[in-house]
Task: structure prediction
Amino acid sequence: MQNKNDKSNFQINEVSSGELDLKIFFRFFFRNKKFIGLISFIFFIGACLYSFSLKKVWQGNFEIVIDTKKGFAEGKLLDNPIFTNISQFSRTNDLRTEIGILGSPSVLLPAFELVSEEYKKVNPKKPDLIFSEWKKEYLDINRQGKTNIVSIKYKDTNKNIIIPVLEKISKDYQLYSGKTRRRNFELAEMYLKEQVQKYKEKSSKSIKLAQNFALNQDLSNVFIDNDNPKSLLESNLGIEQVRIKSANQIRKLDLQIKKIIEIGDDFEQLLYFFSTIPVLVEEKLPLELKELEDKIINLKSKYTDNDRLVIRSTKERDILIQKTKKRAIGLLKARRIIEETNMKAASRPKDIILKYKELIREAARDERTLINVENQLTTINLEKARYTDPWNLITNPTLKKWAIAPSKKRIGLIGLILGFSLSSAYTFIKEKKSNLIYNKEDLERILDANVLESIKINDSEIENTYKKNLLKVLFKVDSKSSINFISLLDKKQSEINKFIDSIEIDNKYSILESLNKLDQNNIFYLLTSLEFISFNDIKLLNNKLKAENVELSGIILFHY
Result:
């Protein structure tokens, strides 16, 4: 028996599973190309006709750039911790907040109402538009990449309403954005004015309270100027400081008096000491002593010490020195009496001193707070005057020249793809349900035999070549060999049967119409045609061959 693996004059090429699957895939579409092509074409034409029936959708847009750095600086606005809650008025919205404002009902509702009115005129019987659905379907607000540019797009089937809607959105956003910021300024200004009035009253009350306490305790003559109440706050001295200062002055005056007495008649030291006392300087006593001393020196340069002019001038000097010493000591003692009086006046019980210090601190604190709030109010007014909106309109609302939808090409392509997919799926399911074999690979797999040749019936070259000597050309068999053909051909395939009957074969052969005549010593080939034989027929044949221990030497396929 000829081995089934003999290649004869037909070389069976090995192919990978990927290439095999691809071939099967293409053969499937090739044999069903008419049906799939027709259905795909019908769907394509239907989709194109449908696209012409749809209303055109138009789109317009405008762009704004948002500068999130504009506004006033929080650090300059409020330094006092008690006003930190005002910082919200100075904070510029970030980009996401501005986009949120653009998409908020406060900005979009007027534009939505404009669209709703036009929609009711055109579609009076249809349900009213819903804001959330309208915003989601027709409006697009997006940031462009990582920039601060925000693009606002609006689309509608009504071409004439797009520009008015975009202008309405732009105008309402500007009004709302400015209104929000103006309201923030107003709230901040109102709050600070209330605080100014509050601390004016509180500061005035605390100052008067401290003054009255000082008058009641006889403290007003220490360091308070009754004509200028603010001197109470501007002075850095306290009652205890006044007493200590007076005590120090008394000690200083005592030392000065003692020094004058210790100096004696030392003219140079006395003259220097007298020059440090303002009253003596005003009375020109140190100057007279200096002039008299200069006169004596001049006389001594001309005359002897016993000269009458020298003696008289010296006596005048000594008398003036004694007079000036008494005058200086008197002045120092008078100042000492004043300091003793001040020290006595500043002496108060400890509770009085502590209470007075507390009143002064409270009055000073209220005054500083008042000044701080007034400064903040001034800052608010300055910022309000120089504030500008953080956005700029960089493009005006514009309408695209061409409609953005429907895309006839896209709809036609979708129809083509849909028709191709549905017809392919239908054909595939139909072939599976038919249980017929369409691929030679299935035959080879089930029967474990190779397809040696696929003969086209109407091919004249094949007919001329194979009708004369089919066995020799195809199989190169020995002339003594007995060849048997197992035919699994539908009798309705008359042209194929006629072709087989018309073959002129020199060697003896037979076509088995019954599988009961199988002989292991003969060579067997299967004659069949794809698309006309079922899997059940092939499986039955395979089982019979195995039962008779017969192997197929090859398979010959016929097709038109």
Remarks:
- The mean pLDDT is 75.
- The radius of gyration is 61 Å.
- Residues 435-559 form a domain with the Rossmann fold fold (CATH 3.40.50).
- The chain has four domains: 33-54+407-434, 58-192+377-399, 221-347, 435-559.
